[in-house]
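Hi R.,

Here's the chain you asked about this morning:
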Amino acid sequence: MTSKINQPTLHHVNLKTTRLQEMIDWYGTVVGSKPNFQFPGGAWLTNDGANHRIALLTSSKMSDDPDKLVHTGMHHLAFEYGNFNDLLDTYSRLRELRVGYDDASHFGREYKRHSARPQYARSKYTISRRGTGRQSDKHTSRFVRRAAP
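And the predicted structure, written out as tokens:
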């Protein structure tokens, strides 16, 4: 048996929703995702060459959780832009479309903006000041050590 861990790239995320078309429209507006496959129970969305990056599932048996903000689960989904101008262009475009941001900050290795999407989950749009995530790991570990109690 080998102890080597083969590190895969995250391919997609699967979200459950009671508002399928609204989620399809939102991801289309915000990050340019388009349905690659759609059926009554869901849709597979992509904004690149993958068959899907965001999978959406729905069912008449699902219901919204009025207390979801205090329950465990996914906090946000992050998208990374290649440069600061692309991030600002997206901010300007979404502002014109009245898609609001609920947070904007400069946090260590990245500039970020959070946007509330349908059903109150958050999406984060970011650019790294220190290159790719791997290149900024050293900075992140320093930040975590400083922030630890």
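The chain has two domains: 12-59, 75-149.

Let me know if you need anything else.
M.
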